[in-house]
Amino acid sequence: MSAEVEETLKRIQTHKGVIGTIVVNAEGIPIRTTLDNSTTVQYAGLLHQLTMKARSTVRDLDPQNDLTFLRIRSKKHEIMVAPDKEYLLIVIQNPSE
Amino acid sequence: MEIVHVYTKRRNEFGRQCNFSDRPAELHVDILPDPSLASNFIERDPCDVPIQCTQEMSEHEVNTERFESDTRGINHVEGGWPKDVNPQEMEQTIRFRKKVEKDEHYSSTIMQLGSNMEHCIKQNNAINIYQEYFEEEEEELVEESEEQPSAKTINVFRDPNEIKRTATCLSWHPDGSCKLAVAYSSLGFQNISPDMSYDSYIWDIENPNKPEMTLKPVSLLVCLEYNPKDSHILVGGSYNGQIAYWDTRKGSQPVEMSTIEHSHRDPVYKVIWLQSKTGTDTFSASTDGQVLWWDIRKMSEPTERLVLDPNKKGNLDNALGAISLEFETTMPTKFMVGTEQGLVVSCNRKAKTPAEKIVCTYSGHHGPIYALQRNPFFPKNFLTVADWTARIWSEDIKESSIMWTKYHMAYLSDGCWSPVRPSVFFTVKMDGTLDVWDFLFKQNDPTLSLKVCDEALYSLRVQDNGRFLACGSQLGTATLLEISPGLCTLQRNEKALATAMFERETKREKILEARHREMRLKERSRSEQSKDEDTKEGDGEESVEELATRTEAEFYEIVEAELKKRAKEQEKKVRRD
């Protein structure tokens, strides 16, 4: 099982334009990362809070609804967050290369 | 006089109910009018009594206190680790991570999230949904769309002193134009009160509340210029005729001032930096009739002196007072002076004798020439702003301007060309309006006329990018305006059209000049002939009085004829109705 996980993460990392991949758990602790520690900690902390906020927004608007994916497009790159109850998969990609 | 009515009532009748009964009216008091009292009063006719039936309301203004904000960043520190794991120790954290990864739930979650994520990543790679499509076409669309020319006030810088002075000169900082130097003075004759502050300020355009730097001269500064080569140095001309220069790194006091004996005798109205290797040469003009050249390193004496004597004799009594100067760095040997008498004098710096310095004069204005500037794209044409018109001249035609605006209702006080568009120039008037002229678009009226403030505007300066301009008013308020992009982007064919227009007007004036010359020659030859024939008529020149009476008579004749014509038209109109 873990080999598949490794393979998935590696595949994601090797896609065109992907700058970094981070896996964060519910407490905000980065489990797996390809970036340096300080950046990882920053992304983990900030995006965790943002995802919580986004999820609560979606559920407030419609309690039957739930957040499936969060994409933040900025001038320099795009941050994609795939949320789950316990973990968070964050990928930073620069699509216009 | 008290009016008293006495009645009696028996005591045992007190407190009884009142029985009312009718009785006829009785006259108690009759005060007859006493006409003799009327002489104490004067009749006032008509009598204005305002009455208003509305709610009484009061007006209050509230301004919040300045909110000072500061931006700070936060550094995230690792937290959230369970109690038994010390985040500093690598071993413990790695062990923890490995433990989490072994969790089954983790694997399934990651697989699922991973597939989601891959889908999005591939999407991103497939199409850049934020790509700018139709980039080139969009630009064309903007040009074709007829957007209304407009100007917007961005900031207003007020004179912080109690007694307000006029903002007579503005100068933009040469690099980046984020600072504006404003010279404050009072140009009214003997209008300076002892409490008036002499300071001039340098403002940062982002902060209109407080000037960035104060310059403290010995006397009020009439003009102020940044050195285009060194952005820390400013030179200023003051009301008492002295020139001073400041270094913003050294503080508010002038670094050096010119000596009073060798300075001007009248306020220095304009000072300009010259193009030189050392970057320290300036020249100044004043209404005492002199143009002086200075090297700021040695301010004790001017390096050169020119007296604006139209007879070229260097006689100070005849000299014309200079109000504005013009110098173009692309033509360093020539410069022009605008005078109080309405003449523009074109001079050559390199001439050997003072008589040769003054090359030619251009006449045509009725009042002092407040602004004089060559067109940055067509240096042969220059703009003058004086009395109630603005005129554009060509260097070759000396008798009259090639283009001019109509006579306005208010005096024009300053003007300048736009540095990015050859056909656009700006003027400000004494009634507080700013006019933007585009003579390729409309010749009779300004393209945009904007009322900036209620008091008169005295100075104007456009920033080098052509987008922002600052104007200074009589109460010391400098207003920063942004003009719409249509007026500051070069249009297609603009240069070619402007060239064509200038050439056309110049040719027209040349033809008119030639014709005038011919007519004058003919008249002269005719008058000479008549002189030979008629020896008895010793008219020669009419005396001034005769000339005056003749002109007066002619004037009244013209006025009467005009009035009669108007009366006739009125009659016709009435009859038609």
UniProtKB/TrEMBL annotation, chain A:
Q: Where is the Roadblock/LAMTOR2 domain?
A: 5-93
Q: Where in the cell is it found?
A: Cytoplasm, Cytoskeleton
Per the UniProt entry, what are the Gene Ontology biological process annotations, in alphabetical order? microtubule-based movement
**Annotated Gene Ontology MF terms?**
dynein intermediate chain binding
Q: What is its main location?
A: cytoplasm
Of the GO CC terms on this record, one is: cytoplasmic dynein complex
Task: Locate the coiled-coil region(s) and give their ranges.
Answer: none
Keyword annotations for this protein? Cytoplasm, Cytoskeleton, Dynein, Microtubule, Motor protein, Transport
Q: Which Pfam families match?
A: Robl_LC7
Give the family from UniProt: Belongs to the GAMAD family.
Job description of the protein: Acts as one of several non-catalytic accessory components of the cytoplasmic dynein 1 complex that are thought to be involved in linking dynein to cargos and to adapter proteins that regulate dynein function. Cytoplasmic dynein 1 acts as a motor for the intracellular retrograde motility of vesicles and organelles along microtubules.
- PANTHER family reported for this sequence: DYNEIN LIGHT CHAIN ROADBLOCK
| Protein name in the entry | Dynein light chain roadblock
Q: Which organism's genome codes for this protein? A: Hucho hucho (huchen)
Automatic annotation (TrEMBL), chain B:
What's a single GO BP term from this record? cilium movement
Its main subcellular localisation, reduced to a broad class, is cytoplasm
* Record-linked SMART domains: WD40
Gene Ontology cellular-component annotations: microtubule; outer dynein arm
* Biased segments, Basic and acidic residues type: 514-538
The GO terms describing molecular function are: dynein heavy chain binding; dynein light chain binding
Using the record, list the residue span of the signal peptide; answer none if the entry has no such feature: none
Q: Where are the transmembrane segments?
A: none
> Where does this polypeptide localize?
Cytoplasm, Cytoskeleton, Cilium axoneme
Q: Where is this region: Disordered?
A: 514-549
Protein keywords: Cell projection, Cilium, Cytoplasm, Cytoskeleton, Dynein, Microtubule, Motor protein, Repeat, WD repeat
Return the similarity comment.
Belongs to the dynein intermediate chain family.
UniProt name for this protein: Dynein, axonemal, intermediate chain 2b
Gene source species: Hucho hucho (huchen)
Q: What taxonomic ancestry is recorded?
A: Eukaryota, Metazoa, Chordata, Craniata, Vertebrata
